[in-house]
Target: Anti-sigma regulatory factor (Ser/Thr protein kinase)
Amino acid sequence: MRAVTLLREDASGPSALTMDLADEVPPLTRVRGWARRVLSDLTDDEVDDCLLVVTELVANAYDHGEAPRRVRLDLSSRPCSVRVEVDDATHGEVVVGTSRLGEHRGRGMVLVAYLSAAWSVEFHERGKTVWAEVSCSAPPSAGG
Model:
């Protein structure tokens, strides 16, 4: 198991933070702790919504994607929002409400759609990025 690395991505602006997800199993506890620290200026409810979105997108990258994987949080104050982006190295479609992993799976993207102002998938040469934007009321700051 390799360590999770926190990177600051200057190209995405001063408030974008990235975590390299190098483990073979999803490091959800560490990802959630990192995201909670980054989002510490938000209300508890807003943090909880963001953590659910982060958890679902990261879990999907492990269940349906391939390494390398990364999660990014981009904090914006005008209007207040948190953009969660998760990269993986596959070009597979994201399907809402169904899963190839079993009949009791597949509700994660339903939660993401409900909690987010918008979400989508962007395909690129290296794979795909699944992103979601969660609205907030207080201007966040990059805590890292």
The longest strand covers residues 69-77. The chain is about 30% helix and 30% strand. Residues 1-14 have pLDDT under 50 and may be disordered.
